[in-house]
Specification:
The complex is a heterodimer. Chain A is mainly α. In chain A, 72% of the residues lie in helices and 2% in strands. Chain B has two domains: 206 residues, P-loop containing nucleotide triphosphate hydrolases (Rossmann fold, 3-Layer(aba) Sandwich), CATH 3.40.50.300; 73 residues, no CATH class. In chain B, 37% of the residues lie in helices and 20% in strands. In chain B, strands 6-7-8-3-9-10 form a six-stranded mixed β-sheet, sandwiched between helices. A four-stranded antiparallel β-sheet of chain B has the order 2-1-4-5, covered by helices on one side. Chain B starts with 15 loop residues before the first strand and ends in a 9-residue tail after the last helix. The chains are: A mainly alpha, B alpha/beta. Chains A and B meet through helix 18, helix 19, helix 20 and helix 21 of A and helix 2, helix 3 and helix 4 of B. Adenosine-5'-diphosphate (ADP) binds next to strand 2 and helix 1 of chain B.
């Protein structure tokens, strides 16, 4: 049995590693007001550079560390130069989306180069432990603690004592004023990204040695933890980030001690949501002040939406309906069925993120709620499938809206972070609430789709039903957009302050957007569950949330036709070209990057 | 101390009455204990150098910001600290100094948003299920809802016609495609669509050329003529002199004068404040002000 002493030490060590991430995130937010979702990917790259150094080049530890620092810093500079700087004039959310795209690209590149299998980073230190009271401290613990303290000390010395440190602080205080007094803010950005990436890379190697295992997919969780720690300390607050990290590490460590490993992340995300709701400016913030200018989180590039003529749309729909009769290719039909289901998800997100401006990064959770509701009601309680699918939609609408409602008071990036956290909480509850959700085993033997009591196994029939549902909900959404609700939601998106001044309650209309969108996504998740006959907590993962956002942006935010087109393009084309799964996520990342940079209004224009 | 100097219905209580308003930002006292009242049918102007606290006072009245101290009564009820939605519902509409149109909405939709609080058929105020009923009614759209929407759309055209052919021909264009002056007009149209009991205008002619300013003056005069109660922040003093029943002068967060336009214009404290700051707004450049000793310069 491990003692509380050990749990505390463990919490501090993990907190130290979170700190290496969170400090970088805070520095980057400080100078460029950006939440860098690619930060965890730098940590992954750092871990793999370390692995190559130790296992292939057999470098001694100091050389390993130096290699990691240099290569990670170069990567940071490259991210800043090619990912962030070109977006200087774009909407505030654009660079955030770009960093998500970058994280996909980097993680998948690592995965393609090193395979998805976990690898162990051999420890380069003597394995002695110091016994203290009921617990012990190892050499590695001391080393990680030492590196953390040294890094923090060096960083503060840099910030307080050097010319560039002064420039970084000046830029963080007021970018425009700094520019006016002659600070080279581009150079400041470059320096900050280099420092942040170097710290993140070191965090990656250390975590590899601490847990003795690294995987290409560990970056995303690292980003999330870094963000949680940063939010706890107050976004952009460097000392706050360190305190937030240690606090997070200890809370997680005690939580794991009390309830088990699978609860670790649940504690982190509950802490995130609690802070966002209760103290959105962090634990150390002073009294809340009205932000002097609106910090809108929308990704709406003013553009003229391309209106497709109704006869053309009708012809396309007729073609889609006739397709299974025209060609005999079950694989293609299945692919398109998938595309219609993703189109539903895209419709949902384009309403929430595009029309209403709430850029949700946890949208897959709505699929999960719909899918699990329907699957469990049908499989465990024997309700007819058509009824459980509707129940899935309603549950996603109701529960989804309820869960995100604490985020309604947030704006901009905070909405994205909160929805991401809420999405993770949903997945973790599904994983841990075994008595209802079957936990990690998932739900197997989900009854098949049915049509007026007859089970549907036929590929074409499933295709038609999916298309019909998609079309019906798309038309309903068009009707919604043409009503007063459409203009009200778009007004909330464009300027929530002005909207409130005309009596528009943000809660009510954000809630209605999530309710309608939740229903649409819930139906999609429910349908998918019965089509697959098996789901588990990973079926609807964060990759799907980001894919949904890419679909919505590709089609044009808020654009109903665009969401359908985006789904067909992003789901159908890779399938048609038979692109292997790991390259597909790479492709999604590149698509997101290119879109944000070159065609933010999407194919059909934002509405 | 703040007895209305020039209000016809002296016997009735003011429509808006703010007393002892205070708002500080860190060390800056943006509004330092202002009293202000507006009677039904009156047009009261608030003037003062940049940074005097005029916009902050508007933000407090419209609920976008909360006062650190002071009371605001509107139509008999205390509204200090209420949400902006609640204050809008009580009958106050405003425009914003720097323009806050909904950039991606058409002119028509922008103005319709102004009428949001007046939607009845599609927004039944039932408890709890109200929002869901609203969703259902928006999707089903029964005759009553369609009729309400059609009436409001007619009204939008009517309001826009107030601005001649500045806005009407562009009614379906998105607001981001409009000129700055036209966006300011859309804001006023949007506020009018709310049919407010009190209209707050924050520098409606900022950035407008003399012709456009003269046009705006006519429009505000016509609003006043039909009985609209208006609280106006304006830098262009000739406009203030011609429109106002009463003028309130702020400087550095405090009220330094109040009275009829002519009286305020010759008030030494006011002249001192303006000349001292050398900063009087677009209508009267500093050079001009320096030569005009006894009264504030007004270009007729
Ligand atoms: N949100 C804010 N945060 C900090 N200071 C503010 C804020 N809003 C206004 N101020 C300050 O309050 C003072 C009054 O500003 P304002 O009301 O905009 O003046 P006016 O509209 O009369 O030009 C100014 O010194 C301004 O800098
Ligand atoms: Mg002002």
């Amino acid at each position: 049995m491990t003692s509380w002493f050990d749990h505390t030490i463990n919490g501090l060590i993990i907190g130290n590693i979170y700190g290496l991430l969170a400090v970088g995130l805070a520095l980057i937010f400080g100078v460029s007001r950006l939440i860098n979702f690619a930060h965890g990917s730098v940590y992954v790259v750092g871990a793999y550079v370390g692995w190559v150094a130790v296992s292939v080049l057999h470098t001694p530890f100091p050389v390993t560390l130096a290699l990691v620092v240099i290569l990670a810093a170069l990567l940071g500079i490259a991210i800043e130069r090619f990912g962030i700087r070109p977006l200087a004039g774009a909407p505030r959310i654009a660079p955030l989306l770009a960093t998500i795209g970058l994280s996909f690209v980097l993680d998948q590149t690592v995965q393609i180069l090193f395979s998805p299998d976990p690898r162990s980073v051999p420890m380069q230190l003597p394995n002695w432990r110091l016994e203290i009271g009921g617990g012990s401290i190892g050499m590695l613990d001391l080393l990680i603690g030492g590196i953390g303290i040294t890094a923090a000390g060096a960083l503060f010395a840099f910030l307080k004592l050097t010319k560039w440190g002064w420039a970084v602080r000046a830029t963080a205080l007021d970018r425009d004023a700094a520019r006016v007094v002659g600070v080279d803010v581009d150079q400041v950005n470059r320096i900050v990204f280099a420092i942040a990436a170097a710290l993140g890379g070191v965090g990656g190697v250390l975590v590899g040695m601490y847990y003795n295992v690294i995987t290409p997919t560990m970056g995303f969780e690292a980003t999330l933890k870094g963000i949680v720690a940063e939010v706890v300390g107050g976004v952009g607050n460097v000392p706050g980030a360190i305190v937030g990290s240690l606090l997070l590490g200890i809370i997680e460590s005690y939580g794991v001690a009390l309830l088990g490993t699978s609860y670790r992340n649940l504690f982190a995300f509950l802490l995130l949501i609690a802070i966002l709701v209760l103290r959105p400016n962090g634990l150390f913030a002073s009294r809340h002040q009205l932000p002097p200018e609106p910090m809108t989180g929308t990704f709406i590039a003013p553009s003229k939406p391309i209106g497709l003529p109704v006869p053309l749309l009708a012809a396309l729909a007729a073609f889609a309906i006739a397709l299974p009769l025209l060609i005999d290719n079950g694989y293609l039909i299945q692919t398109l069925t998938n595309a219609w289901l993703y189109a539903l998800l895209g419709l949902s997100l384009t309403l929430v993120a595009g029309t209403s401006g709430q850029v949700s990064l946890g949208h897959a959770a709505l699929l999960a709620i719909g899918g699990y509701t329907s699957a469990l009601l049908a499989a465990d309680y024997g309700f007819p499938v058509w009824l459980t699918i509707i129940a899935g939609g309603l549950m996603a609408a109701g529960l989804g809206t309820l869960l995100v409602s604490p985020a309604f008071r947030l704006r901009g990036h905070y909405v994205s972070i909160a929805t991401l956290g809420i999405g993770e909480i949903v997945a973790l509850v599904i994983l841990n609430w075994e008595s209802v959700t079957h936990g990690p085993i998932g739900v197997a033997g989900i009854p098949p789709l049915e049509f007026f009591g007859r089970p549907l196994y036929d590929t074409n029939a499933i295709y038609w039903v999916a298309f019909a549902i998609m079309l019906a909900l798309a038309l309903l959404q068009v009707r919604l957009l043409s009503s007063h609700l459409g203009r009200t939601m778009r007004a909330v998106r464009d300027d929530d302050v002005a909207a409130r001044s005309f009596g528009i309650s943000l809660n009510r209309y954000k809630g209605l957007a999530f309710a309608f969108g939740g229903f649409v996504a819930g139906i999609s998740g429910a349908f998918t569950a019965h089509m697959y006959s098996f789901i588990n907590h990973e079926t609807f993962n964060t990759h799907i949330s980001v894919l949904a956002l890419t679909i919505a942006i590709l089609g044009g935010m808020g654009n109903v036709g665009g969401a359908i087109l985006g789904a067909v393009a992003l789901i159908g084309l890779p399938e048609v070209f038979r692109i292997a799964a790991e390259y597909r996520i790479l492709l999604y990342g590149i698509a997101l990057l290119l879109l944000v940079r070159f065609r933010p209004q999407g194919l059909l224009g934002t509405v | 101390m703040n007895a209305p100097v020039n209000a016809s219905p002296i016997t009735t209580a003011p429509l808006l009455e703010a007393t002892g308003l205070v708002r500080r930002f860190g060390g800056v006292t943006a509004v330092g204990g202002i009293d202000l009242s507006v009677f039904e049918g009156e047009l009261v102007s608030v003037i003062g150098p940049n940074g005097a606290g005029k916009t902050t006072a508007f933000n407090l009245i419209s609920g976008l910001d909360k006062p650190d101290a002071g009371a605001i009564r509107f139509a008999g009820a205390n509204i200090a600290g209420r949400s902006p939605e609640g204050i809008a519902a009580a009958g106050i509409a405003r425009t914003f100094q720097h323009g806050r149109v909904f950039a991606n909405l058409s002119i028509a939709d922008n103005v319709l948003i102004g009428a949001h609080g007046r939607l009845r058929a599609v927004r039944p105020d039932w408890p709890i299920i109200g929002p869901l009923a609203e969703l259902a009614l928006a999707l089903v759209r029964p005759a009553s809802v369609r009729a309400e929407e059609a009436t409001l759309r007619d009204e939008v055209s009517e309001i826009l016609s107030l601005f001649g052919d500045r806005l009407l021909p562009r009614i379906d264009q998105p607001a981001h495609s409009l000129s700055y002056a036209n966006r300011r007009r859309v804001e006023i149209a949007r506020a009018l669509a709310a049919r407010p009991r009190l209209l707050l205008l924050d520098e409606p002619t900022a950035g407008m050329n003399p012709t456009e300013t003269a046009e705006m003056l006519e429009i505000i005069a016509s609003l006043k003529a039909r009985g609209q109660t208006i609280l106006l922040i304006e830098h262009k003093l000739d406009m203030v002199m011609r429109l106002s029943d009463r003028v309130i002068v702020l400087d550095d967060g405090r009220k330094i004068a109040e009275g009829k336009p002519q009286a305020v214009r010759t008030d030494p404290a006011v002249i001192e404040a303006y000349l001292g700051h050398g900063n009087i707004g677009a209508a009267a450049p500093a050079g001009n002000a320096a030569t005009a000793a006894p009264t504030l310069p007004v270009t007729a």
